[in-house]
Automatic annotation (TrEMBL):
Belongs to the ABC transporter superfamily. Pfam families: ABC_tran, oligo_HPY. It comes from the Bacteria. It is a peripheral membrane protein. This is ABC transporter ATP-binding protein. Residues 8-262 form the ABC transporter domain.
Length: 344
């Protein structure tokens, strides 16, 4: 496999709250290779969207926001750029060209007073220097590429004249306008019905095979993760609490929070049982609990060691990391015991 197209090291984000800084994201680190899909999973308030906005340099500037760490993006010529250290002009040259993002709600991301064609063409004109006519031809091709029929007519449409699924396809076309190496998709299917959601996922996978882009897919839907991801990172209270290949994490989770998320997914093959949920809510970042942030909600919590200090990420297997001091003990207790051999 080629070297990573994106490498994030120790990304931390805090927001100013009076005279103090409230931490929202703690020491996030990962790599993304060409053609790979990395899913970032967690409840609302876990820090997923803040992480993506920090990588895109779309958070409010200092002193309202404090961002530390590094986000190393490989350029088209092989040069590595630290997105978090570049001046604003250099970031604008890369954003939309080498790295792009699909936002969660198209209706709040698309400009309601500009036609679809002009909005898609804007990125091409800025990054490729095309004139308006050439940029609109490129926009028409992109609309066809993402499966919107009658592309020439849709160029002249306004956002409110399109369905929710079509608007999301337009957002994908805008993101892919300059063939980025990294695409961040922030819950792109949340507001769509199941049929359209499946179509959007199939479209993203097909475009990824076609272009070889790396995809960071942010979601709270574990069913989507199982369908689209190669690797998964589970996020809670601003920290990565489990990461690894999608199969080991989904079939043998080691963090109780991950196990709770998986158990809470409705299943059609289980009839008559009650739906499972994780009690409580994500802690307030202004007043985090001592030790493990998940401890107040965890069925396996013990004051010692869970409340003593924030647990580190530990290796639970090849490429499988977990942030839990009791994960080995919990896994051993849950493992099936071998049957006793019959006595002679």
């Amino acid at each position: 496999m080629a070297g990573p197209v994106l490498e994030v090291r120790g990304l931390s984000v805090g927001f100013a709250d009076g005279r103090r800084t409230v931490p929202a994201v703690h020491e996030v680190a990962f790599t993304l290779h060409p053609g790979e899909t990395l899913a970032l999973v967690g409840e609302s308030g876990s820090g997923k969207s803040v992480t993506s906005l920090a990588l895109m340099r779309l958070l409010p500037p200092a002193p309202r926001t404090r961002v530390t760490g590094a986000a190393l993006l490989r350029g088209r010529d092989g040069t590595v750029h630290d997105l978090l250290a570049l001046p604003d002009a250099a970031v604008r040259a890369l954003r939309g060209d080498r790295i792009a993002m699909i936002f969660q709600e198209p209706m709040t991301s698309l400009n309601p007073v500009h036609r679809i064609g002009d909005q898609i063409a804007e990125s091409v004109r800025f990054h490729r220097g095309l004139d308006r006519h050439a940029a609109l031809k490129r926009a028409e091709g992109l609309i066809e590429r993402v499966g919107i029929p009658d592309a020439a007519r849709r160029l002249r449409a306004y956002p409110h004249e399109l369905s929710g699924g079509m608007r999301q396809r337009v957002m994908i076309a805008m993101a892919l306008a300059c063939d980025p190496a990294v695409l961040i998709a922030d819950e792109p299917t949340t507001a769509l019905d199941v049929t359209v959601q499946s179509q959007i996922l199939a479209l993203l996978k097909g475009l990824q095979r076609e272009t070889g882009m790396g995809l960071v897919f942010i979601t709270h839907n574990l069913g989507v993760v199982a369908e689209i991801a190669d690797r998964v990172m589970v996020m809670y209270a601003g920290r990565i609490v489990e990461s690894g290949g999608v199969v080991p994490v989904m079939t043998a989770p080691r963090m109780p929070y991950t196990a709770g998320l998986i158990a809470s997914v409705p299943r059609l093959d289980l009839k008559g049982g009650e739906m499972v949920s994780i009690p409580g809510t994500v802690p307030d970042p202004r007043a985090p609990p001592p030790g493990c942030a998940f401890a107040p909600r965890c069925p396996h919590r013990r004051p010692t060691p869970c409340d003593e200090a924030v647990p580190p990420l530990e290796a639970a297997g090849a490429g499988h990391d977990v942030r839990c001091r009791r994960w080995a003990e919990i896994a051993a207790a849950a493992a099936p015991r071998p049957a006793l051999e019959a006595r002679a």
